[in-house]
Amino acid sequence: MASQYHTIIIGSGAAGLSCALELVKKNIPPESILIITENLGGGTSFDAGSDKQTYYKLSIAGDSSDSPIAMAHTLFDGGAMHGDIALIEATCSTQAFMNLVSLGVPFPHDEFGTFVGYKTDNDPLQRGTSAGPLTSHLMGTHLLREVQARGIKILDHHYIMQIVKDSQGRAQGIIAVDKEEIANIPVLTQAKLETHLHTFQADFIVLATGGPSGMYGNSVYPLSQWGATSLAILAGAKLQNLTESQYGMASLKFRWNVSGTYQQVLPRYISVDPEQDPLDTKTECVEFLRDYFPSNTKLLTATFLKGYQWPFNAERIENYGSSLIDMAVHMETVIRKRRVYLDFRQNPATFTWEQLEGEAKSYLDHSGGIQARPIERLHHMNPKAIDLYQRHGIDLWKEPLEIGVCAQHCNGGITGDIWWQTSIPHLFAIGEVNGTHGVHRPGGSALNAGQVGALRAAEKIAFGLWNQLPEGNERLFTLESSKKKLIETLSHSIKTDSPQDSQISQQLQEIQSRMMQAGAYIRNNKEIDSILIHVKKELTNFFSHISILSGEQLLTSWKLYDALVTQFTFLTAYQDYLTRGGGSRGSFVVVGDKNSEDTFIPHPKLEQYSIKKNNHDFKTKIQEISMNQEEGKKWTFQINWVERRPLISPQGWFETVWKKYNEKKIF
Predict the structure, then answer these.
(1) pTM for this structure?
(2) 322 close to 292: Cβ distance less than 8 angstroms
């Protein structure tokens, strides 16, 4: 018999936890809410950050000139973002921020109570704030403490395998397995699947599972984050802007963005032969960036700017821009197969203070960062940045830091309306899994979007004028019927002979490798076409070809399936964009025909990359994609391009708004 709840929240990051609290504030009984999660205290919220992880909000400091409309314009002007969503994220940012402050998240303010800010990437004003390198972790910790104090049930160590819809196409429940239970089954049978697949029924489901990290090889997503975007894909939900993700340089041994102060203290970049130890005095450490920049001044300026222009940006390669560094790192690591390090122990060769100019010189002077070596400057300006790596066994005083260009954030995702409800009624998507962002987004806006999405979803769930749902028995029958079909599908994979775990691991590595090859920051349509043919074949035959003996192998196989479904959907979206003439934009470059008029070579050292210019016709459009649910159309998609909704400036009359609000007509 299925457990029954008012609302089930899948995921226990900052967005999911916040949504649960907002529901309770709006008089939804805490005992009727379930948070179900794979790894409580894991995921991007708890395990990711940067030198001073940014939270983005409306500026509320001093006499700075800002407004919800001004902030909405910044979000909207990044391209491919709906105007009403931009306005909501701006308007609700102060409420969401103050919710966190009231819970005790230590955002800094001065003696007058002013929450000061700073400039972050893709933003003209000082809307950024931070509680340190672990801002999202602090958010999650304080939110979790309050969730537990409110008596909201959390079901940990559960893996969700399917979202179930009722006969009207509304989300009505989930099928999940207890990871600890299933992992202890040495030989899986159909009967044991019947016992260990659990069903949960709910009036509303909120998907808060973070970004799709499982399909990437080089990734700054924490190891505890996998994602579950395939749940929405397989349920037939509409997704948008899947072409838009963020990539940037991060450390590899311990996954962390090397942004902000890590770049602003001007470390040297070195590469070594993959078999050599950079600490060995006999190893030749090559400062390869010197081949890409005409002078130390240009090199140092680009390095400094990389601090707050951290994401790889297709528009910042030419003219010795900061993203030329990412391309140079790519050439060393991917093409030349060398290993690249940030070395804080020494300055770049022939470094002198006289070589600094403009913003870099002014910033370091004002910050007192004029010490002799990068590590000393980092210790003066941000000692926590050193402590962070020290806690993970990396001593920046004594050793260089290995880095690569990694997947970091998905700007696209599941399509939601102005209440974050998906195209499937009663199913909401909040946090990174929701695709509110467009091509460019200000640094830290993802944390704001997650909190605003939590507010909006909770309001709609609590106050919406919903149609009456079917009787409980009818809904439970649908859940049990879906469970039976899932067991039938999985039974094709259960084999009596012992499969090799290494085969599953190898398949996953292949998925992740080809995503980095063709579906990351460098994209080539011919490669994508070839990979898609292969992936479709793998998906079509997945359950007949995969071998599952134990319960543990069921879990790893399903994660493999998730990565494969997600990759297939994303690459299909990429293929459509490129086929329609889309060019380089945001955080990726498109490799085109070198003889074409719409391509260019951005630097003499990058001759093998004829980069296709941005096609600005796409800036005002949003790609929507959904998997066909009809019989006979499996593994095909509906793809549409829609004009983004405009940004408006509502001028509501107080009495009118008050009346509509009290009558719940706005919901």
Answers:
(1) 0.96
(2) no
